[in-house]
Amino acid sequence: MKKVLVLFGGVSSEHDVSCVSASYVVSNIPRDKYEVCPLGITKEGEWFLFEGDVSLLPEDKWIKSGKCTKALLSPDRKDHGIT
């Protein structure tokens, strides 16, 4: 099964729009074909893998949901993916 990373949020005036868009995208990706990995960026620039309900994405409810894991992108080619 292929993995799809849905990146949302960010340090931008479009942060809230991005979260709403991500909620729609994550809700509509066929789960029988793809493993969806939502990765949110807070308004302060922190990165988190989000494993909660997509209805929490709008209005930044996802940040305080307890369903976030700090995410780091390694520059080392030996470490594949996001850790």
Automatic annotation (TrEMBL):
D-alanine--D-alanine ligase N-terminal domain segment(s): 3-61
E.C. number: 6.3.2.-
Main enzyme class: ligase
Gene3D superfamilies reported in the protein's UniProt record: 3.40.50.20
Keyword set, alphabetical order: Ligase
Membrane-spanning parts: none
MF terms in GO: ligase activity
Annotated protein name in UniProt: Protein containing D-alanine--D-alanine ligase
Lineage, uppermost ranks: unclassified sequences, metagenomes, organismal metagenomes
